[in-house]
Structures are given as structure tokens and as C-alpha cells.
Specification:
This is cysteine desulfurase. There is one protein chain. The chain is of the alpha/beta class and 706 residues long. The protein has four domains: 10-18 and 285-404, Alpha-Beta Complex (Aspartate Aminotransferase, domain 1); 26-277, 3-Layer(aba) Sandwich (Aspartate Aminotransferase, domain 2); 432-449 and 460-598, 4-Layer Sandwich (Metallo-beta-lactamase, Chain A), CATH 3.60.15.10; 612-704, Rhodanese-like domain (Oxidized Rhodanese, domain 1, 3-Layer(aba) Sandwich). The strands form seven sheets. The protein has a five-stranded mixed beta sheet with strand order 18-19-20-21-22, with no helix packed on it. Strands 4-3-5-6 form a four-stranded parallel beta sheet, with helices on both faces. Helix 2 crosses helix 7, helix 3 (81-101) packs parallel to helix 4 and helix 8 runs parallel beside helix 12. The chain is elongated, with a radius of gyration of 30 Å. The two termini are 23 Å apart.
Amino acid sequence: MVTPVHIRPKADEIYLDCNATTPVLRQIAHAVSHTMEQVFGNPSSSHITGLQARYILDNTRRLGREVIGAGSGHLVFTSGATEGIQTAVLSALSHARKRSDAGEIDLQDTVLLYGATEHKAVPQALAHWNTLLGIGARLVAVPVDQNGLLDLDVLSHHLPRALMVCTMAVNNETGVRQDLTTLERVIRQAAPEVPWMVDCVQLLGKGNLNLAASSIDYAPFSGHKLYGPKGIGFLYVREQRPFTPLIIGGGQEQGLRSGTENLPGIAALHTLFELLLDEKQQVFKPVSTLNRYREQLLAALRSAFPSLELNHALEYSVPTTLNFSVRGMASRDIMDVFDAANIRVSSGSACSSKVTRSFVLDAMGIEDWRSQSAIRLSFGPATEQATVDVACQRIKEAAQALRHSCLLLSDTNEDFDSELDGVVQLRFDAQCCYLIIDRAARELAVIDPIPQLAERIEKLVACQHYRVKAILTTEQQGPESTAAMLAQLLCASGCDAARDNVGWPLTATADCSTPVECQLATEGCLLVGNRRLYRVGSRQPIYLLSSPIAPHTEAHVDFAFIGEQASPQLLNAAAAEHTVLCPKWDESFTIATRLQELNDMPCGCQLVDIGPEQQQEWLRRPETLVLDVREQQEHQVTPLDLPAQVVNVPLTRLIQFIYDHREEFADRPVVCLCRSGNRSAVAAQVLSRFGFCNVSHLAGGMALLG
């Protein structure tokens, strides 16, 4: 299918990942540029150029004190919040080490306290300096309740033996805001002198600060979280509290942090502080406006995703963060289609099932499925109403694309014309599940179902009104197997009764003619549309899918679903050179394989190694075939407008595409393309192995299309 396309320009981007980083405001970028071009002196120099630089440095520090309400104490410019955290932890633990060496305290049975939902920089810094300084304290993560608020009883219990307490003002994943007034009361009642650090990164610009009126000892901040550039931040240190420089050698920052100051970054903070202090400015919106934005976005999300569940209580959160999960949908599917719609959000947990889920949501006791599929949408206080309006419209478009792909069920009777036909490969980690679909007959069979994909398959059946012919497995399994459970879910759709625990239906006839290439005994066949599915073996069977049935022609083996079977001898007797072998496990993303590869025979081609300029030239040629390997919903939201022929072939449908077109496109120039370049790299490797001899892929993905 050739599709016309429009790629939205950068200016059309809706950026809703501000808790990760923010764009740089125009006036802040101008301040950085001006400083780099005109005020480039070293603040430590005594000449006029140096004095001009010193003025910016000193005035920024003065404005910063006003912003955070710190008339006394130190305000030290750093490279960012991570350096500030490291400095605070080093200072507190060095102080404890000195007191122990002087015999003032006993380090035995001491603890280092931090919130269980703290940014990973905090516990890792505590562990690092605890080991390096030989403190030997025990790290204790203070638990939180389901609202993300710290357990004050546990905190109070450990405080008498604490060498340091680390909490955060606002959580970066959920936006949950701790009650710092109550925390201070609890901490100072039990441990008046314990060093207390509060990560204030996500609070700046979203709430009032008056650090001089509190007993917070250390407060790190970061510029790039509030429309400044990366590489600049600052650390507040309360007067007379322990301090040990992290960087020494030069005496800058009154000896508290050596190294020539990042004056362009400090100038950025200067402009930021001026905006924050200007009561007449209209860049940063009041809390009432930010709350209205959140309500509008949440209404759009709930309309698009009726099964959406929030992972935090709004009353305990700053108004710029929404963390949610959609029942039955992986965060990756939502992120990918949002990205295609030019909406930038992030996964509240990992986007790969191989990586840890959201430790923040786990600590809050949120259900597993919500922790695994969380999405974080975060905007900044400079967000405009027009941006929110466009975001809501795009969310609606993205949800419509997900419904067309049957990943999101509609509450109406829409009958979407799915493009799925033939063999479809679904994956979870390295495990593969196969759907055999006959689009015209509305029939489907499942081979080697995976528990994590059961709901997705159920949605597809309901969406397309498939009649399920069989739920099969290549493993010996009992009645509690995934195949058996999925069969129970789909019985209403027409599952035939199975004659054994691997799902082979009673209706599978015993008098089917065996495929030409198969030299092994088959146990009848099952019709899925106009193809025959054969079973070979009983305890750990393999399944053979024939070519479409035609009058006066013999059946051939197009696909073999081999489970964990890797015996060349058995597979040589069951399949042919042209057969696509589909394994159950695929650690290295080979997608599928061929008999020649199992027999260690040379086959396939090498990827074409061409430079970016030649690759772009290929994309301008009508004879080039561009394989857009993004999922159907991504392609629908942002199709590709190129002179070359564009075909949407997600990795799920790649093996069927290879079988259908390996002779037609074997020598044609092919460029594989996806969002980031990861999926296209996989597709290009697979195509070359299967004999497509003029294949390249666009490293960097959609970002490289102008």
C-alpha cells in the first residue's frame, strides 16, 4: 500500500515531558548567547571584562537568594542537581567521619535515611560515599503510602540513629508534593542536628520557597528543569552547616566549588530569576491556570482512554504532572503513537519489559500492571493555552489510530478494516507468539500464546470478530497452560474443542493430503481460511502452514512453527528451502530463519553500506521501496510523504512480507525506516538474510527526515 505523507516540522511538536527537561526560553537563550559573545571574561580576572563577568555572577546569586528565600547561607553554582546532591551527601558524611574520628559519635548501628521514591541519584550517592568514607551505615528507604507520602512513623523510628536524611519536595514521576512543614517538625523533634537535604528540583517555579524560615540544610536545584540550559544548577547550604567541597583546586565560589564558573549558564539563571521575581511577567502561569490545563488534559485522556487510571492523587500533586496507566495497553504502544502524533511524553516506568518497572509506583504499592504500563505527561509553568488545545486534539487522533489497530477497543460498533493477514508475530521479550489470520474468512489460529499478550489477542478477536479455529502450543502443557486459559477467554468466538492439552482441535481431519516437502507423518490438518495447518508430533509438536489451497495443485510448506525444535534432521524432513521457520524463542531478534542457516550453508546478502547523502538520494528515487516498520497506528498518525514507494510493514508482519515479496523485491533498492532506527535496523538485517540484496536502513529514524 503506497501512502501519501506529511511529516510535521519541529515547530509543530507538542512537548509534554518537562519533568525530564524543558526547552530553553527565547529570552534565556538570548542571555546565554549575549554572554558568550559579549561578556566572555573570567569572573576571577581583575580587568574590566572580568569585572563585567563578576557582576553577572554576583547579581545572579543575589536574585537566586530572593527566589528561594535564603537571605543567609551559601548559594553555590554547580553543573546541576546531581552535583548538588553529591556535594550535600559528601559534606554530611565527611562531617560524620570527622566526629567519629574525634570520638564524638559511634558509627555502629547508624543509618542513612532517604525516601523510597527519591530520585536514584540520592541513594546511589549515599551508597557511594558511605563506602568510600568507610562510614558503614545502613541505608534505609523510608516507605511511602499509596499517595506517595512518607511514612512519618518509620521516619521517626530511625531518626535517632540517622547520620543524614534525604527527602524530595516534588517527585519527578508522579508530581507528588511532600508536606515539608510536617516533615521538618518530625525530623527536628527527633534529631535537631541531623543534616537534612531536600531535592527541590521539581519545585522551582511551581511553588513558593522560603528556605531561610526552615531548617533544611541542603537544597539542590537544576536549570534545565525550568527552561534553562543543561549543565547549570545551584546548591543552597544553610549557614554553619557541614560543608566539604566536591571539586577543589582554584578557589572559585568562595572556595566552595572550584573551576571557572559557567558564566553563560549563570546568565541563563539570571534571566530565569528575573522572570520568577517579576510580578507583572506573563511567561509563567499562575497555579489556577496550571490546574485548568491539567483538568483539560486529563479530560482529553479519559475521553480517549476510558480505562485510564491515575497513579497519584491530584490533591497531593503539583498541577503540571499526570502519571497514568491504561488497562490492557503497554506504555510503549501509547508512547509510540503519541510520538508519531508529535506529542512527547515519557514512560513512567521502563518502555522495555526487560528493564525495571517504575520503582516509584512500586514503592507506592500500585498494582503491577499500572507500574509496568505507566505514562508520565508533564508540562511546564510557561505552557500556553494553545499548546494544551492542540495536545488534546492530537490525543484524540492518537486514540483513534489505536482503535483502528485494535489495540484500543471502542464502545461503539465500529468495524475497522485491519491490514493483518497471513502470519503475524507478536513478542514479549525474547518469546514469540504467532497468529495465523485469514482476513477474508475472518478466521484466526494462535500458536504459542504468551500470558502477557493474552489481553491483546482477546482485543484483536473482539475488534475484528474473528472465529478462533485453535489455540495451539509447541510445548507439553497441562490444563492450566496459557493456551488453555486463552482458549477459555475466546470460546465465545468459536474455539473448537481440543483433543489434547496442546490444543489440537477435534475437528482437525485425518485425511488431509500431506504437503509435498513433508516426509513425516502428520496428524490431520486444520483449515484456517484457505490454508491448511498441519501438526507433526504429539508431545512437543511443530506446525506446518501450507500455501493457499488451489484446484489441481499440491500443498507446499510455506511456514513452520518450530517451537524450541532446532534439529536440522527433523526440520529438513518437514520443510523446504523456501519455508520460513518461526521459532518460539528469539533472543537475538532474528525474527525468523531458514533451513540453510540451520544447516550452516551460506545464504542471504550483506547489508548495503552507504553514506547518509546517498541514502537520502535513494529516498528521492521512485524505484526505491521504503519499508516503514513502525506499527500501523504510528504510520496512520504520521505517514511518510516521499517520492519513493512507501509500504507500512511493522515487525509483526515482516515474515509474511518476506514470504510474499522476496522474489519481487529481491534486487530493488530498499530503505527500512522507523521512529528511532532500532526497529529498522532489525528489519534490514532480516531482509538481507532472506535474500533482499539491496537493503539499507535509516540510522536515526524519523528525526533525519527533514
